[in-house]
């Protein structure tokens, strides 16, 4: 995707967005409602055409008539899954398998894989929200797609099912499957993605690995520790580096080490003979998202 824009009349859904996804990579597509995530997915699926820019999926234009075969390589899980309530889980998946020209024997394997083997004959109308979500995931996996597009895939899943889902994503990535993953539950996403793309108001605010985003943001490293004795000497040494130590309960403390001087701060801490514990908390994906989104909103206010 190179400098892709999509407009609906006067509404700019996407503005000059460039993204690249390689084989076996998981891309976290992040953004608030209306940021452009769903539009991006629809463009990749070929459901809509870009207003400008170039978009290729497996080296083909996904919206072209001659690229209909691409859909056999794609799997899609929408945010709000909807199936015929009167059909059983097995019947629903068999229907989608027939649409893709996939053998029916895959159905039972997929239902077992997503934890629905006990409910294959039950009507979908009796399924819980989490069970419907699992059925939607099974539908997306029909035909062993090479690219998966997952929109809020863990909505309605309990913690154990969420863990199993991300385990499945890790397995697919190891097999060379590429994944675009939209999620608002950022703490669970971070360790399962290779790169993140943060959208805001249809624009790409930041893109890269977690480490690259940390370098771009320049946010401080939060350090928490415990010292057995007075903290006066440590406070004095740190103040010379422009770092303020905040006292917590008991002998605990915390401080924010600037991105460019965190090694100096850590050396100062380790020189203290009374230091009994230390914990490092680098900016996580949730913090990084809030930073870039906040910067974008601030710029909008100033304009």
Automatic annotation (TrEMBL):
Q: Which SUPFAM superfamilies match?
A: P-loop containing nucleoside triphosphate hydrolases
Which terms in the Gene Ontology molecular function aspect does this entry carry?
Answer: ATP binding; ATP hydrolysis activity
Instruction: Please report the stretch or stretches of sequence annotated as the ABC transporter domain.
Output: 1-226
Identify the keywords attached in UniProt to this record, alphabetized: ATP-binding, Cell membrane, Membrane, Nucleotide-binding, Transport
Q: Name one Pfam family in it.
A: ABC_tran
Question: Which named protein is this?
Answer: ATP-binding cassette domain-containing protein
Q: Which organism is it from?
A: Azoarcus taiwanensis
């Amino acid at each position: 995707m190179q400098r892709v824009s999509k407009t609906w009349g006067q509404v700019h859904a996407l503005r000059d967005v460039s993204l690249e996804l390689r084989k076996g990579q998981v891309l976290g597509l992040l953004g608030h409602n209306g940021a452009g995530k769903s539009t991006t997915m629809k463009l990749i699926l070929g459901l809509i055409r870009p207003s400008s820019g170039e978009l290729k999926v497996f080296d083909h234009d996904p919206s072209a008539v001659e690229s209909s075969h691409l859909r056999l390589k794609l799997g899609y899980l929408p945010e709000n899954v909807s199936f015929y309530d009167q059909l059983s889980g097995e019947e629903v998946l068999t229907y989608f398998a027939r649409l893709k020209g996939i053998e029916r024997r895959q159905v039972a394997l997929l239902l077992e894989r997503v934890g629905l083997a006990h409910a294959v004959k039950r009507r979908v109308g009796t399924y819980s929200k989490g069970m419907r979500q699992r059925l939607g995931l099974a539908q997306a996996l029909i035909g062993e797609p090479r690219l998966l597009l997952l929109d809020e895939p863990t909505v309605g899943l309990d913690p154990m099912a969420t863990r199993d889902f991300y385990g499945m994503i890790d397995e697919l990535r190891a097999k060379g499957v590429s994944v675009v993953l939209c999620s608002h539950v950022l703490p669970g996403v971070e360790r399962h993605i290779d790169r993140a793309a943060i959208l805001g108001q249809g624009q790409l605010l930041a893109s890269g690995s977690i480490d690259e985003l940390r370098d771009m943001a320049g946010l401080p490293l939060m350090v928490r520790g415990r010292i057995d004795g007075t903290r006066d000497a440590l406070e004095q040494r740190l103040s010379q580096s422009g770092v303020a130590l905040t006292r917590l309960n008991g002998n605990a403390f915390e401080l924010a080490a600037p991105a460019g001087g965190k090694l100096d701060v850590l050396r100062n801490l380790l020189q203290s003979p009374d230091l009994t514990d230390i914990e490092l908390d680098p900016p996580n994906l949730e913090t990084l998202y809030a930073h870039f989104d906040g910067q974008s909103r601030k710029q909008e206010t100033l304009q």
